[in-house]
């Protein structure tokens, strides 16, 4: 009987894990199934571009995995039973169930509202394709002179506010940041960021906590009103609640707690990658939710699964950071070099060169997903480790 590997989610982490498993394991011994709610692979790091009217290339998952032996099922995951090793699915008007021997949980995350009143009712986000298209439609209908407020001064907020301001110079665009603008960057990067905001006419509200969102703007913690026809919420991400509803060991964030090989600390047949997993990086600091974390997590999980199934030594992926790539519209950016544990170094790249650098990184990540087995493939048979004994291996 073939060893059944089910990958839940086909974002960067899930898609890469499935492709890497197809490269490592012989199809005569394994069945690899990817379950995803969308028919396409979605470049989540480009959602600010999609929201401002830019065209993104369609990458149907059936095309991505054609010829690899990976089966694609379009369905929404509704529950996971880790005791029975089954996953409940919803597709169209029907329901189904799929069983697994090894599960790769990569359901990612969505925008976090943190319980702030009015966010769900009045704010827009760019955490996914559908929400980005919803914002796109609203911006298309916003007349010249309209006001847009981006709440959140992290990477997503900075990319969103500069993209909107560049694409729609006829709008009054502002950003509200809880701390200082880009205060995790080095001084030169912060200066460049302020210069870009000034050039694009972006109003910056620093050290500003938002206590509520209304149809006409946002209310700060000290009672001020920041007017906005459109409020874009980019304050962070929250994982789907499915894992927390199981007996898996999860962190307070709902992320699955994993070891150095991305395997659940409580259920060894389950691996978690991307935003869904809580893994430690350098300095015993949890890896942040990002593509920069999710891709090496996927490499590590896939290689560990393949090694355990085939009796080979488990390789170690570099779970560390090298830089933070920030696009500031289509013609500017910041490449902030960082330490292994993600602290800013003095060195950086800015301007058009940084924009090109970021574009190369984005294209490279998407290309890697779209060509999962283009590199030399060595598919090994399950030998030393039988499927039923996988869960007991160290």
From TrEMBL:
Residues 4-302 form the FAD/NAD(P)-binding domain. It comes from the Bacteria. Pfam families: Pyr_redox_2 (PF07992). InterPro entries: FAD/NAD-bd_sf (IPR036188), FAD/NAD-binding_dom (IPR023753), NADH-Q_oxidoreductase (IPR051169). One of its GO terms (molecular function) is NAD(P)H dehydrogenase (quinone) activity. One of its GO terms (biological process) is aerobic electron transport chain. Keywords: FAD, Flavoprotein, Oxidoreductase. Its cofactor is FAD. PANTHER family: 64 KDA MITOCHONDRIAL NADH DEHYDROGENASE (EUROFUNG), APOPTOSIS-INDUCING FACTOR 1. Belongs to the NADH dehydrogenase family. This is Oxidoreductase. It comes from Micromonospora arborensis.
């Amino acid at each position: 009987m073939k060893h059944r590997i089910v990958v839940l989610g086909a974002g960067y982490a899930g898609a890469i894990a499935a492709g890497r498993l197809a490269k490592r394991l012989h199809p005569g011994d394994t069945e690899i199934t990817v379950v995803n709610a969308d028919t396409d692979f979605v470049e989540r790091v480009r959602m600010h571009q999609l929201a401002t009217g830019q065209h993104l290339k369609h990458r149907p998952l059936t095309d991505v995995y054609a010829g690899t032996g990976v089966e694609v099922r379009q369905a929404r995951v509704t529950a996971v039973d880790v005791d029975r090793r089954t996953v409940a699915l919803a597709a169209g008007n029907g329901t189904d169930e799929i069983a697994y021997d090894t599960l790769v949980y990569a359901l990612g995350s969505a925008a976090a509202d943190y319980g702030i009143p009015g966010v769900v009712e009045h704010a827009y986000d760019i955490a996914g394709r559908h929400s980005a298209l919803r914002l796109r439609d609203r911006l298309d209908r916003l007349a010249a002179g309209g006001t847009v407020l981006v709440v959140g001064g992290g990477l997503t907020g900075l990319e969103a506010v500069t993209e909107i301001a560049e694409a729609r110079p006829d709008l009054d665009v502002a950003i509200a940041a809880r701390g200082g603008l880009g205060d995790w960057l080095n001084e030169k990067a912060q200066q460049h960021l302020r210069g870009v905001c000034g050039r694009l006419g972006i109003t910056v509200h620093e050290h500003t906590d938002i206590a509520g969102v209304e149809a006409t703007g946002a209310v700060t913690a000290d009672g001020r009103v920041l007017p906005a026809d459109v409020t874009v919420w980019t304050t962070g991400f929250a994982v789907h609640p499915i894992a927390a509803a199981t007996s898996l060991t999860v962190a307070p964030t709902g992320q699955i707690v994993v070891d150095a090989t991305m395997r659940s600390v409580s259920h060894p047949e389950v691996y978690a990658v991307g935003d869904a997993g809580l893994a430690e990086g350098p300095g015993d600091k949890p890896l942040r939710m990002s593509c920069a974390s999710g891709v090496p997590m996927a490499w590590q999980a896939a290689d560990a699964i393949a090694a355990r199934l085939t009796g080979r030594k488990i390789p170690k992926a570099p779970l560390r950071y090298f830089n933070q790539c920030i696009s500031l519209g289509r013609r500017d950016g910041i490449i902030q070099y960082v330490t292994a544990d993600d602290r800013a170094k003095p060195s950086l790249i800015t301007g058009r060169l940084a924009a090109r650098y970021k574009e190369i990184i984005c294209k490279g990540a998407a290309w890697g997903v779209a060509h999962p087995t283009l590199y030399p493939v060595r598919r090994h048979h399950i030998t030393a480790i039988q499927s039923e004994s996988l869960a007991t291996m160290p």
